[in-house]
Every structure is written in structure tokens, then in C-alpha cells.
Amino acid sequence: MTGLPMGVAFALVVLSGSPVAPERGASPADTLPALERGYELLRGDQPAEARGPLMEAVPTLPSARGTTVLRLVSLLDRVEEPADRLAAQAFLAIEDGEPEEALRILEEGLEEAREEDRAPLLALAADAADRFDRERSVQLRTRLFEQHPDALETVEAAIALARYHSATLEGAEEALAILEAVIVARPNHPLAPEARRHFERLRERVRREGGFPR
Amino acid sequence: MTGPHADRSTRDEEPAGLEGGVAGLVSTIRGRLLRHGALAAILWWGSLTCAVLTLAWVLAGSGGWEEGAVAPLLLLAAVVLGAAGAGVAFAGAKRSALKEERVVRHLEEARGLPQGLLRGSLELARGSGQASFSLAREAERSVLSRAGGRELSAGRLEERLRRAVRTGGGALCVTFSLVVLLLLLSPDRALRAWAGVGTSVSVLAASPLPSLLVEPGTVEVPRGDDLEVRIAAGPREHVFLHLRRAGEVPATDTIEVAGGEGAVHIRDVRAPLEYWVSAPDGDETPHYAVTPVDPVFLSGVRLEVIFPAHTGLGLEEYRGEIPPLSLPVGSEVRLEARTSRELTSASLAVPDDEEVVELNVDGRSLEGTWTPRRSGRYDWDLIDRQGEGVSSVTLPPLDFTLVADSVPQVEILFPERDEVLPLSRRQPLTVEARDDFGLERLEVVAYRENSEGEASDPVVAGTDLEGSRRATIRSVLDVTGWELVQGDEVRYYARAVDNHPSGQEARSEEFVLRVPSGSELGAEASRQLGEASERVESLAERARSAEDETRNLARQSQSVREGSGSGDPGRGRTPSEGEDRLDYSTAQELRQSLEGHEGIVDELESMREELDELARGLEEAGHSDPDLGTDLQELRDLLEQMTSPELRERLQDIDQALDDGDLSAVREGLRELMEQQSDLREGLDESLERFRRAAAEQEMRASGQEAEELAQEERRLAEAFEEGFDPQEGAQRQAELEERTEVLEERLLSLSERLEQIDESSAAEAARSSAMDAQEARQAMADAAAAAEIGDGEGAAAEAGEAAERLEALTEALDEAQQQMAEEFREALRHALEQTAHDALGLARRQADLIESMPQSGRSRRAGELQEEEAMVLQGLRNLAAHLAHAARMAPDISRRLGPALGGAMEAVEETVSALSASRAAGPSPRRAAGDAHEALNRLAHQALLQAEQAGEDGPSSAMESVLEQLEALAQQQGELQQESESLLPMEMGLEAMMEALQELAAGQSDVAGGLDDLAQQPGGESDVLGDLDEMSEEARDLAQELEGGRLDAETIERQERLFQRLLDAGRTLERDEQSDDREGTTAVEVDRPEVAPLPAELLEGMRFRPPNAAELEALSPGERPLVLEYFERLNRQAPPRAPEGGEPEGWR
Questions:
Q1: Distance of CA B176 to CAs B40, B76, B165, B1041, Å?
Q2: pLDDT digits (tens, 9 = 90+) for B193-245
Q3: Which of B846, B935, B1148, B1149 is most worth mutating to test chain A (most A CB atoms within 10 A of its CB)?
Q4: Residue B341 β-bridge partners
Q5: Between chains, do B1148 and A3 touch, taking CB under 8 Å as contact?
Q6: What is the pTM of this model?
Q7: Within the 913-932 window of chain B, which residues sit less than 8 Å (CB to CB) from chain A?
Q8: How far apart are CA A103 and CA A125, in angstroms?
Q9: CB-side exposure of B665: number of CA atoms within 13 Å?
Q10: Structure letter (DSSP) for residue B880
Q11: Closest Cα of chain B to A180: distance in Å?
Q12: ipTM
């Protein structure tokens, strides 16, 4: 099998239905499912090497899990040292049911990361905080929204912030401001229709329930 | 006094009168005789002199002595000799005949004296004896008395002398009288003659005068004409013209001579006359006769000219006075005329030439036919019955100028200089040929010459011109298939042949088409791409306008409908059939819009063909730039998408609807047209950026290549200067390089503008900086050339080295900029794909949230709200698609790779929206549909991440690696098909289901065949691949046909597997991992033999989780089916993960 592109080789593994005989000298880890191999590599602080197995594993995963793994891969593709390592550690912590640990890892390591890598780490931290400290996640998303307005994660974070603020009438103005800012800045973003719909419903709700005249 | 003489005083006195005695007597008589003698000599000399003068008068003649004449000298000599002779004679007589003794004897004889008496007395008298004085005296007296005194005559002697005197006197009288008479009669003549004698030496020494020459001599003159007589008289001052007319007194005119020549006109010669010329020195010409003659009148003159056949000229005829004619060589002349006198012969002749044309004479008619052989004046030569030549005719000579058939002229008007061979290998030519009388044929001759100077056989292509005098031909010199390589030249020229019987030929200047170098090919490709991008920009603008026009027309037609449908119901008026038809003006406008759209499509097709030609030309030229090849292929694909046959069919349908005038059909057509135009405009906008980028990238590559070549050549030149290269040649070579560098500088400045246009600012700045480097290099080159011209080789080498360094730096800078641009491009592409993945995952997460809100089965109370939210996801997905389309402008390949995933996601989300619709009764449940949509969004993100990884590694820049990728994809696809076939084979499915599955398989197999076809067309996919792509494609197509025919068996699967292996092998070849025949051995090692365990019981019990059936599998794509099957297999093999009640394992939020 020497020389075959890795993708094709592993496709053969998937398609043939039978495990390919290991090469002489190959490690037992090569026979593990791709997801586990990926996790092993993440634990071994080899996030770049983990990419391949993780991507290989995605088609075999349930959708929601697949989305989670893909989000990690997407994040790892966009960041550099030490952010990739921080993200991998945080991900594993979450997988292990320790979101607080994930948050701690990210918050402590945030300043070490490059400026352009902080937005995805903040988004990941906010997702971790969602599990146990809503306020904390709001703070993190607010920081993301205010400090990194052009980041890929900002629109999603903004919509989440708007959802949070729109829970109360008092927070609706802020939510509307956030949504309006997003719609104006990125009118063609894939999440802009949702933002627009949320904006219109919130505004209608505010008008209906009183509050500021619009 | 003593002696005898003393005695004399004492002697007796002498008789009177005899003083002196006998001696005295003798002396007296002797004296008298001497006087007579002298007188006679003088008289005779005088008469001789007069005779000489008379003779001189006679000999000199009326003209005087001729210069150099001897006679005067002889005459003078005679006079002188005469005088000398007379003197000598007198002296001789005095000594001999008239000596004393002889005189005494003659006296004694005359007086009858005894001889010796007188003598003795004389002697006695002189006392010469011993006699006494008195006896002597007495004797003397006796003698004297007997002698008779002084009257004593000397007898005969004296008589002779007296006679000589008398005759001498008489001769003198006669001759003298004669002289006087001559003097009186012709004093001039006499004086000239006698002067000549006196200056006989001068006469003898004087040079003779030249003879008089007179022209024209004896001549015939037309009656009434004047005759000019010209006289060559030498140094004479004047001559005499003597003229004698018939019946008139001869006249003599003095003609002044100036400069040795004189002339006189004899006016109005009507009668014969005679003339001659004489000179004062006596020279005289012969007598010449002047005869007046009457002219010969020619009438009825007709001259026909028959031109050579090839001139195409018809017969020409001249009557009367024949003007000077210009005749083509070979023309035949036919002459007829009538004369006023009968002639015996007539001819025409060119003076000083042998050509004489004899005319046929018949009484007073003459005619002749000839072909003039030379230009000139043909004089008439007519001989009348008297055998005399007729000196004048009423008609002037015939004047022919023969014009030779000139060689044709041929010229290549375009191109008018040596050129670089176009990429298409076809060079348009414009050739013009001219000929005075007509062209037979025009040809273009071309041949190849390689770098060694070896020439191939010429290839000739021509056309018949059938006698046209002028032709301009536009043709194309097509050298495709000549297998030209760099260093070759195509040399060509035009050749024209005229219609002269000898087929005169002319050829034009020979021009050269040089096979372009690599950098030139690159520059040409860059130029064409630049032009293409400009055309696309223009077409995009046109498309925009056309779209606006069509939109207006659509509104108009809509208002027509509304107007026709808004009839007043109260009036009971309903739209008639006629009101539902399109009005003429709208139809015309629509047709124009349609034609405009078709025009754009036509132009896009033309551009596609031009790009095809460009790619072919580059390939044929051996220009192997995979990046350029990839760019060209992408651009061609873009254009092909916009010019598909289906679009044409739709346009034709619209056109048909217009013809039919059916308003509803036209409206439908309008809608379609608007859609097409919108698609076209979008396509053009998308492709415009790609074109611009391709043009800029190619220009950057070409400029870099040119800079590299210039740097190398400049470096070589610098080395040559150091080694003492010829300065003049070096300066010229340097000037050529400088010129190329200037062109490069301009290209770099233009490139910087193009790069700014596509927002590549740093690359644009690099191009500008490179342009400055080029400028500095040029300056150094100029300095090097100047140094070379003054012979400073060292200085030239230094400057050339400086220029080379600049160019090398420029090359590096361009290379870096290009790499940076490519890197930025890849980075931008990667970022776009990462964003696509991120956005897709954001939508996937949103989708997951929506799934959470859906019940496991049945409809939710919030179905409407969920449907709205799902619609937002769909809209978001469309926004994502728009972003992806923008990224596809940079890399159209992205559309192809992500298109299916994106389409699948859209379809799945649309299905979910539909499933959430209250009216839908059948189909999958909303939750199920939403789950599928979630999967599809994950797949989209997954694919985008895969593409982003590839873009980050090498981007779409390597054609060979692109081929490898595609081979891998095709291999994977083939493997999937094979697996699917294997899975279908043991299944017990219904016939209909089986057929449907086989159709799916057949479609997939056809896709593989199509992919192999496309791959074979791509750069890098044609020759280095192990195995023939065409053969594999053919095999795939055969398999597809079998499957489509419902045939699926073990052999089919085996063939599928073989095809799969061949595709893998082909990929291996591209990776340079060729199979080797070398035996390779390794040391044996421990093999871990897994223990063969017994089959798990659950396999024998059946599967815990039933895999989807055929119908369910049908809903999946071929790629998904094996994954799903594998998934269920794993599920059945392993213990399922613990899951919370009621749902799937919770994902990470």
C-alpha cells in the first residue's frame, strides 16, 4: 500500500468492509477507529496530526457529533500555536464532561494566543460556559462581539447574545442594536436571514408589549 | 730720275694726242672693250631678271604663290646666279679674251699690222728691252700712225662685244617691256608673284592652308526650299561663294569666315543651280549641283497594328498622319498607302541600322507587313521610275517605340516585415501583383529553415488569375502540422507569373516568420488573455444593458395584458383573440433584444474557440506551462457553460414564439430570456475576474520569463565584452537588448495596472518596482553600448554586468511577487473555503437546534414557525451559495467540487421546509427530513474543509496534481460503484427496484466515463498517465451500457474492479511511484498471526440493526450507500454507544 494517497487508502478500508492488513511495523493505534485515533493525537498535543483521523471519522458519526468534530477541525485549521493546542485541550475537557476545566484552559491561555486566534477561542469558551454558567458565556460572547467584530464567529455569537438579551423587555433594545449591527455589517451572511427574522419578531414584540416607540 | 724711265724726261716729245703712246692706246682700246663687255653682261643679266619676273608672273598664277612653293626660290636663285655668272663671265673675259696680248693681237689683226709689231712697240715703250728710248719712241710713233689712233678698232673682238651689247640691250628691252606690260595688266598678280620671288624663303617656309570643305555638296532640295551651305575654311578670313543659276550670270559672294566656318543660305531653290567656293589663297572646291525636286505625295495611308495575343489588346488602326506609336515587342505592323508618282521600289529603314523593310510596290500602291525589331524612326526610301531616289515625302517618318513586356511586379503588403509566427500557426497574408498585360498565376512559396540553416522543400500554394492585370489576394499561410520547433523559421515569398508566352516571373521580397521563443509565447498568451478579459468586460456591460431592456419589455408586455384584460364589464366586452397577441413594435424590440443576446452568446462562443486555438497553438509550439494550461481550461469551461446548446435551443423557442405572436408564449419566453440574461450576466461577471486574474498571472509569468532570458543574454554579452568582443557588433547587440528591455518595462507598468484592477496591490507594487529596475537596467545598457562604441570594452562589460544584475534582481522580484500572489490567492481561497465550512457548520448547528424543537413523530404545533425558521436556514444556505460563487470566480474548480454537496444540502433543506408544510401528507417526516438536512450540511462543511486543506497545500496551481486529484476521485468513485454492485448482487430485490438500482449504477458509471474524458482533455492528463485514459473511458462507458441493459453479474463486477485498479495504477504513475521490475526482498520478521476466532453468534442470529432496504438506499447517492451499509455493519458488529432516552447521542454544544 506504500505510496497510495492516504485518503484513498483509508477509503478502501471503509469500502471494502474488511480491515486492511496492517503494514509490517505499523503501530496498533493504526487499527483504532479514526475518531479514537484523532482523540489520541489531540491528547498527545498533536492537533495537526489529529485532523486527518477526525475528518475521516466524521462520515461515520451521528450528525450532531459530526458537527461538533467538524467545528473543532475548522477551528484547528484557522489557528496556530498555541491556540490549536488550547482548543484541543478544551475540546477534550468538554468531551470528558469538564466544561469548567475547558473554560479555565481557554481563559488562561487566551493572552498567549495571537490576536486573530482569540475570537475562535472565545467562541469555544462561550460554548463551554453555556453548560454551566450562562452569564459567563454572555460575557465571553460580548467580548467576542465587541473586540472581534470581523471574526467568523461574531455573527453567531451576536445572535446568541441577542437571544439572551431579548429574554427580557429591558434587554430587547440591546438585542435589537446587536441584531441591527449584524444585519447592517453583514447583510448577506448565512445567518443574516435568521438575524433579520429575530430582529423583526423582537421589534414587533417590543411594539406590542409597549416599550420604546419605533 | 735715272734709268730708262729717267730717260723718258729726256726723250722727244710724243705726237699729239698720243699721250701714253702705244700703251695708252692699247689701254684705251682695252678699256673700251671692257666697258662693252661689262655692259653686255649687265644687259643680259637685266634681261634674265626681267625674264625671271615674267616667269614668276606666269608660275604664281592668279592665286599667288602657294605656301611652300619652291619656284620663287629657284627664280631668285636664277637671278642671283645670273648676276654671279655675268660677273664671272666678265672677269673671265677680262683675264682671257680681253687680256692685253689678245687685245694687241686683235688690234694688229684689225689694222693689218704685222703680228708682234704692236706688241713690240708696247714693250719698247715700256722699256722692257735694251733699245733706246728714242728708238722706242720712234717706233711707237710709227706704230701709232699705222694703227690709227684711238679709233682703232679691236676687230672681231670688239665687234662681238658690240654685238653682245646690242643683243643684250634688245633682250632687255623686250623682257623689260614684258614686265611693264604684266605690271600694267594685273598689278596685284605681278606684285604678288614678284614679292614671292623676293621673299622666296618665306614662301617656302609658310604652311599650306587646309582645303575648303563644303556641305552639303551636290544635293537635291525640295522645290522652293532654302539650302544652307556650310563652309569649312580653316584659318582663312573669308572665302568666295560662286553661284551659277541656270540662265543667270554667275554671282560671287564673299563669305566671312568665323572660327574656321562660314555659312550661307541659298534661298528659294526652284531651279537647278551650281555653286562652288574658292579662297583667296587659290584653293577652290569642286562645283556642286543643287537640284530642286518635287515631293512624293502619299495618300490613303493606313497602318494597322496587331498586338501580341497575350496582351489582350485588339487591332488598332491609324489613317493619315501616323503619330509616334508605342508598340509592345512582337507587334505586327501592316501598312498601305498610295503615292503621287509611280515607284519602282519603296522601303522603310531605320538610319544606321540593318533593318530595312521592303514594301511591295504595285504602280502607285505600296503595302507591307513586318514586325519591328527595334525602336526608331523608319524613314521612307522611295525610288521612282527614273531610278532616282525621292528625297522628300509628305509624311514624316514612322516613329515606333517598342516596349518590352515588363516583368510582373509582386509585393507582400501584409505583413510587410519579418514577424513572429502567431500561435495559431496561421499567418494572414495580403499579396498584390501587377502586370502590364496580364497575370497568369500568383503563388505563395514557403519553406522551413531550421537553426542549422537547412531548408526543407518549398510548399507552393497558388491561384490562377486568368490574365488579370492587377490582383490583391488575402490568404492565410497555414503551417500547422509542420512540426516547427524553436529556432526554426518559416521563410516565404510571393511569386507572380505573367501571361507572356515565355511566362515571365517575378518574386517578392522574402520574409521570415520566426517560431516564437518561450517568452514570446508567454507574452502572446498574455496579450490574448488580456484582450479576452476586455472583451468579457464589454460583454458583461452589454449583457447588463440587454437584461435591463428585456426587463422593460417584460413590464410592457405585462401592461399589455393588464390593459387587454381590463375591459369594462358593463359594456360586456371580453378580450378577443386578437387583443392577446403581441403588438408589432414590442415584438420588434423583443426580437432585437433576443438578437442582442444571441450576439453575446455568439461572441462568447467565438472567444471559446479562440481560447481553444490558443491552447492548441501553445501545445503545438511546445509551450508547456501547466499553470497557463489550467487557466485556459478553466476559462474555456466557463465560456462553455455560458454557451451550452440548451441555451441556444431556448433562444430558438423564444424566437418561434415571437414568430407565432402568441403573447403568453412570448411572456414565458421573456421570463426565460430574462433568466438566461441574468445567468449570463452573472456568469460574465464571475468569469471577468477570472479572466483578469488569468491574464495578469500569465503576463506576470511571461514577463518573468522574458526578464530571465534578458538577464541571461545580458550576462553573456557582459562576458563577451570582457573577452574582447567586437565593439560595434556588441553595441548593436546591446541596443537590441535595450529595446527589448524597454518593451519589458512598458509591459511591467501595464501589468501593475492590471494587478491593481484585481486588487493585488502588493504584486502591483512589485511590478512597478520591477519596471523601475528595468528602466535602470536599460540605462546601464545604454552606457554599455556607448562604451562599446568608443572601444572601451572594460567599461562596456562593467555596465552590461550592472544591467544583468538589475535584470536578475527584477526576475527574482517578479518570481517572488508571483509566488506571493499565488500564496495570497491560495490563502484567500482557503479562507473562503474555511468560511464556507464555518458558515455551513453554523447552519448545521442551527439545523440541530431546529431538530431539537421537532417532535419525534407527527407534526409539531409550531410547525408553521418551524417552517419559517427552516426557511431562514434555506435562505442562509443560499447566501452561502452566493459567497461560494464569489470564491468560484477565483477558482472555478471549486464550484465543481463543492457543487454537489451544496446542491444536496439545498435539496435536503428544501425537503425539510416542504415536510414542515401543513399541506404535505406523504413523504418523510419533518424530523427525518431535518436530520437529512443536518447530514447534508455536515457533508458540505466536510467537503469545504477538505478543499480548504488542498488549497492551503498547493491550490489549483498544478495541473498535474489536479489530474492526480481527479484520478483519485474517479478511482474512489469507481470503487464505490464496484462495492455497490457487489452489494446489489446477492440482494433479493424486486425487478423494478433492481432495474432502478441498476440505472443508478449505470449513471454513476457514465459519470466515471465522462470524468475520464474530461481528464484526458486537461493539461497533464494526456501523456504521462499509465494506460490510456480513452481506453478506460471506453471501458467505463461499456460497463454503463451493460448496467443500463439490466446486466449485472460476476463478470461485470470483475471488470469494474479491473477498471478501479487501472485508475489506481494511473494515479501511482503520476506520483512517480512506478512499478519496478526489480526484485526487492526484505528480511523475514516475526509475523503476528491473529487468532482466528469463531464467528460471533449474532452473525448467525441475524443483524440487530436492519440496514436500509433497496428503496431506502435509492434515496441515497452512490457514495452514500456504502457508507451507510458500513455504518450499519459496524453497528451490528459493535455494542452501540449509550444514548440518552429518546434521541441520538447529544453532540457538543
A1: 16, 17, 16, 161
A2: 898 888 888 777 766 678 999 999 998 887 888 999 999 999 899 999 999 98
A3: B1148
A4: none
A5: no
A6: 0.52
A7: 931
A8: 5
A9: 15
A10: H
A11: 17
A12: 0.86
